[in-house]
Specification:
The structure is a single chain. This protein is an alpha/beta fold. Helix content is 44%, strand content 19%. It has seven helices and seven strands. A seven-stranded mixed sheet has the order 3-2-1-4-5-7-6, with helices on both faces. Helix 2 packs across helix 3. It binds S-adenosylmethionine (SAM). The site of S-adenosylmethionine has 21 residues, from helix 3 and strand 2.
């Protein structure tokens, strides 16, 4: 990784950590929920696609997809269809216009909703690969939704933040000592959950 990219990743991690501290502070002072958008770099998207071995029969779901760049890249590189769920309407609008511009409207769809909306269940179930780049505050709830609604054959990759109490099949260093990509097979997590095994948190 170039020095410039390393600095960029470092800045993004710091931004997310600051946002996380902000969310903890807001728990004491409830206000309108805020979203934090930090796009994943092309380099990290490449690592994700390789780590999950994304291929043309896959349906990739990005939970908290921002402008859908991960999904557009998955289509460009692997011809995998994509579904995005994003709370921020402006990001969804921008992403939809990029999708049309890139002629991917038949391959990638973005949905403005929260991952815990009832309408998200069918989208979670449709995925064969799930990508996450979410604040740790939200990953526990997402992990429960995946255990409940995703297909047992699904692969899940979480960027930077590991999923609490899930045991990764592989950890791909993105920037040594700063960020990783965590690969999980859902079947294994479902079995651990059924056994009451809390697994090990890799973070
Ligand atoms: C760190 S960004 C990652 C963006 C994108 N996945 C990427 O990698 O480029 C996290 C995104 O999750 C979205 N988000 C936060 N809470 C959400 C929720 N409850 N439902 C859907 N999206 C959410 C934020 O608006 C933000 O765009």
């Amino acid at each position: 990784m170039s020095q410039e990219n390393a600095e960029e990743v470092g800045k993004n991690v710091t931004k997310l950590q600051a946002a996380f501290r902000g969310m903890i502070a807001r728990r004491r002072m409830p206000e309108k929920p805020k979203t934090v958008y930090v796009p994943t770099s092309l380099e990290a998207i490449d690592s994700f696609l390789k780590l999950a071995q994304v291929h043309s029969k896959d349906v990739v779901l990005d939970i908290g997809c921002g402008d859908g760049r991960v999904l557009r890249e998955a289509w460009k590189q692997s011809h995998a269809r994509g579904i995005g769920i994003e709370l921020d309407q402006k990001l969804v609008d921008q992403g939809k216009s990029d999708i049309v511009e890139d002629d991917m409207a038949n391959a990638v769809s973005l949905h403005c909703m929260s991952f815990n909306d009832p309408e998200a269940v069918a989208l979670i179930h449709a995925a064969s690969v799930v990508f996450l780049f979410m604040l740790p505050e939200l990953t526990a709830e997402i992990a429960q939704l995946l255990l409940k609604h995703a297909q047992p054959t699904a692969r899940v990759v979480s960027f930077i933040f590991s999923l609490p109490n899930w045991t990764p099949d592989a950890i791909q260093p993105h920037q040594e000592g700063i960020s990783n990509l965590y690969l999980y097979s859902l079947r294994k997590q479902k079995m651990n959950a059924a056994d009451g095994d809390v697994g090990s948190d890799a973070r």
